[in-house]
Design goal:
two-stranded antiparallel ribbon; mainly alpha
Length: about 325
């Protein structure tokens, strides 16, 4: 048991470089699986899938599977295909999300649905989901299949929950956290947990890695939601203000609405209903979330969940993998600064 307690924020300039370097050789093998399994005799499928898969992105979720396996000193090869399955699940959800949200950008490029249309994006997303399940079945572990299939179902529930919560000004902080716990954190948790299964480690190690991934996922999404109000499209890889124009009740809006004057609340009600979507309206929304300290408090909550993620690794011995996974949390939280 490690006695060292790492406090978030201790690293002044965190980076993903350590975790990228840690898993680089494994990631090459994962990318080979991804490239092979996204192929099809239907040319549109690899063309559209490749637009998103090869379009940047940090590959955070499969990296977490690989890093978790390194943390546990796993020396096999099963995690390569499973990490590819995790990335396919994530990519499929992105393709579907962009159709639902009507997004113009994804990872700094035009969203696939704008180039090929909504039907093609949805169907290629379905193809990638199917490929992910093929990879799970080939692995042969019912436990892995249960973890990843459950995560896929939870993600879909989270997306539907978010859809029904859109333009609902009365959404509170707890249901919001339920939404992001499902649509974002569930796959982070599963990506980490399956490493303990293939390494044949204890239920305690499984639970610890699940907690690490889940809390990191929540922190990651909280920062994303704050960035929508404090960053630009070049930094985000999507359009600044997308959440605002889509009427999403993210935590910065929930807090700003709760703390606002009657006039402020009137503005938020109009905005959430889609009646205030101009650039000037978005600029006013940015002023409100900043003046009410809604962004500051959203980021403070992100740091809280980030610390919980780091604490979840406390029972594992010190190693390069553990250090890299801790710094990945620091990086996820520091992106907004």
């Amino acid at each position: 048991m490690s006695a060292t307690i790492h406090r978030i924020g201790r690293n002044a300039d965190p980076s993903l470089d350590p975790i990228i370097a840690l898993v680089a050789a494994d990631m090459n093998l994962v990318n080979a699986v991804i490239l092979d399994r996204m192929q099809s005799q239907i040319p549109l499928i690899p063309e559209l899938a490749g637009h998103l898969i090869a379009g940047g992105g940090k590959r955070m979720r499969p990296m977490l599977t690989l890093a978790s396996a390194r943390l546990l000193d796993y020396s096999g090869a099963r995690h390569h295909r499973l990490a590819a399955a995790v990335e396919f699940i994530h990519t499929a959800t992105l393709l579907h999300d962009d159709v639902v949200d009507g997004s113009d950008m994804r990872r700094g490029k035009r969203a696939a649905n704008l180039i090929w249309g909504n039907p093609a994006s949805v169907l290629v997303g379905d193809f990638l989901f199917s490929r992910s399940f093929e990879l799970m079945v080939e692995d042969g572990s019912l436990k892995v299949l249960k973890i990843l299939s459950n995560a896929s179902a939870v993600i879909a529930e989270g997306e539907v929950n978010q859809l029904t919560a859109a333009r609902r000004i009365d959404l509170g902080e707890e249901p919001y956290l339920d939404i992001i716990g499902a649509k974002t954190a569930a796959l982070f948790a599963a990506a980490c947990r399956i490493a303990a299964v293939v390494a044949e480690r204890s239920e305690g190690d499984e639970a610890a890695l699940d907690a690490y991934g889940r809390n990191l996922g929540i922190a990651f999404q909280l920062v994303d939601d704050a960035i929508d109000y404090i960053s630009d499209a070049g930094t985000m890889g999507k359009d600044a203000g997308d959440d605002f124009r889509e009427g999403k009740m993210t935590l910065p809006v929930i807090l700003a609405y709760a703390r606002g004057t009657d006039a402020d609340r009137g503005f938020w009600r109009e905005a959430v209903l889609g009646r205030r979507v101009s650039d000037e309206d978005f600029a006013h929304a940015v002023d409100l979330v900043r003046s009410s300290r809604a962004v500051d408090d959203t980021l403070a909550r992100a740091r809280h969940y980030g610390q919980r993620a780091i604490d979840a690794l406390g029972g594992f011995p010190g190693s390069a993998a553990k250090d890299a996974m801790i710094e990945a949390v620091e990086f996820a939280v520091a992106r907004a600064y």
